[in-house]
Design brief:
mainly alpha, two-stranded antiparallel ribbon
Length: 144
């Protein structure tokens, strides 16, 4: 699942500015991020609930859900850590202008953006397929 987060929206906003698209204020981006992120995370848990309902023993359904919710929190933490490492490997910067002198202090550099998006897509796909393969090969496999 691809997560839409504040940094993605800010980067997209800055990238759009380089093509002459209208600038959106950062508080608006924060409001959009907050409004979209919470409901989408809740919706993303529906497949997990369906899997638990089908595969967990009836007396352990609550335990399965608690463990899976813990794993969800763990993946969010790992995703933030992975983002930091990928941002060090693929440097993408947006233009920063000094408001007092109206000079560019940091130039925009999107040269590694394509490779970053490709790398994130491949990592997400491979990790998902690896987890599915591990679960199917283990005793956690569903017999439904």
């Amino acid at each position: 699942m691809i997560n839409l987060c504040l940094s993605d929206l800010t980067l997209t906003n800055a990238f759009g500015n380089s093509f002459g698209w209208p600038k959106v204020a950062d508080p608006v981006i924060k409001a959009i991020d907050t409004a979209l992120e919470s409901p989408l995370r809740q919706i993303a848990m529906i497949p997990m609930l369906a899997w638990i309902a089908n595969s967990a023993p009836s007396h352990l359904k609550a335990t399965f859900f608690a463990v899976m919710a813990s794993f969800t929190n763990l993946t969010l933490s790992l995703s933030q850590l992975g983002t930091q490492y990928l941002n060090r490997a693929f440097v993408v910067t947006r233009e920063v202008v000094d408001p007092t002198t109206d000079t560019v202090t940091i130039p925009a550099d999107y040269s590694e953006l394509g490779m970053l998006l490709f790398t994130v897509t491949i990592i997400s796909l491979l990790l998902s397929l690896l987890i599915i393969a591990v679960v199917q090969a283990s005793s956690l496999r569903s017999n439904v």
